[in-house]
Design a protein that fits this description.
The chain has helices at residues 3-17, 22-37, 49-56, 60-72, 98-114, 169-177, 185-196, 198-210, 215-228, 233-249, 264-276, 281-303; strands at 45-46, 76-79, 89-92, 136-139, 146-149. With 304 residues, it is mostly helical.
């Protein structure tokens, strides 16, 4: 099974065929990614409930509910395990191969009609196995230099590039960051390529590389483009130029200047303090008399 074709088929399934809840989606994606990482896309594979609880954030009841719904939707096969003896087993049903999908759904339906939903039939073997390779080809930005790296988690056929004249985004990622994309980053990059096109993804990766930032920086840029409806590299460059121009001219400011004003009670207190500092003529006379008496006492003491 081809991992990236399966991802695209699953996305189309959610868009056009059936509603998938967040819990179902989390469970399916964890099972799909684990099967890909372990090279078990066409086979049954064991997965402990405790691991799924940790990975999906679902409760035990939530796992059971989401699993049963995925089975009914024809997305997975499932064989119940035995507590402390054998872990439950799963298999991802091929969504892009219509013949395989029909066979799997028919088998699942027959088994479910005679037993509980969880006790699904043994998986129907896929006619052709297409495991994701671990050899990665990266192409220079000008398409003239090609090197091969064996450390990438997965390779993407050049035919999946939606803009053949552009370097493949996965290959371009490696050239920008000097390392291959991880198994988690690869499908994310391809999703952005489906949404924006390879040229836009490559431009965002280049901006991240020039800024010395991480892949998350490029993700933030692309999310802003999607939100603002920017669809071409030219539009992205113009938006960046406009932003810099506004910031330079001072029309854009990230911080608002606020003038602090004292409350009325504070102002009144200051006023009262000033008023209380004034003395009356009677008080001045008393103070003068005391000063004169003190001065007289000093003179008498000096004569003695």
């Amino acid at each position: 099974m081809d991992y990236f074709k399966q991802r695209r088929a699953y996305r189309n399934f959610k868009l056009y065929e059936a509603s998938v809840s967040n819990g179902q989606n989390n469970l399916y994606r964890e099972l799909l990614d684990y099967a890909n990482d372990e090279g078990k896309l066409d086979d049954m594979f064991p997965m402990k409930n405790s691991a799924l609880l940790s990975l999906t954030g679902l409760s035990e009841a939530g796992i059971k509910k989401a699993r049963n719904e995925l089975i009914q939707l024809g997305l997975i096969d499932y064989v119940k395990g035995r507590k402390n003896v054998k872990a439950p087993e799963y298999r991802i049903i091929n969504l892009y191969d219509k013949k395989s999908r029909v066979t799997s759904r028919a088998t699942t339906s027959e088994k479910s009609s005679s037993t509980r939903t969880e006790e699904v039939a043994q998986p129907v073997p896929q006619p052709v196995a297409q495991p994701v390779a671990h050899v990665f080809t990266s192409t220079d930005y000008n398409l003239t230099d090609t090197t091969t790296t064996t450390s990438s988690p997965s390779s993407v056929p050049e035919s999946q590039n939606n803009e053949p004249e552009e370097p493949h985004p996965i290959a371009f990622y490696q050239r920008v960051f000097n390392r291959p994309a991880t198994a988690i980053q690869t499908p994310i990059i391809m999703d952005y390529a489906d949404e924006l096109g390879s040229s836009m993804v490559n431009h965002a990766l280049m901006l991240a590389g020039e800024s010395g930032a991480s892949f998350n920086y490029a993700k933030g840029i692309m999310d802003n483009w999607i939100k603002d409806g920017i669809k071409t590299v030219e539009q992205a460059k113009q938006a960046s130029a406009d932003f810099k121009s506004k910031k330079k001219s001072g029309s854009y400011s990230g911080r608002t200047q606020v003038k602090e004003t004292l409350p009325d009670w504070a102002t009144n207190t200051n006023q009262k303090t000033k008023e209380s500092a004034k003395i009356t003529p009677e008080q001045e006379a008393i103070i003068a008399a005391r000063l004169a008496k003190l001065e007289a006492s000093k003179k008498e003491a000096s004569h003695e």
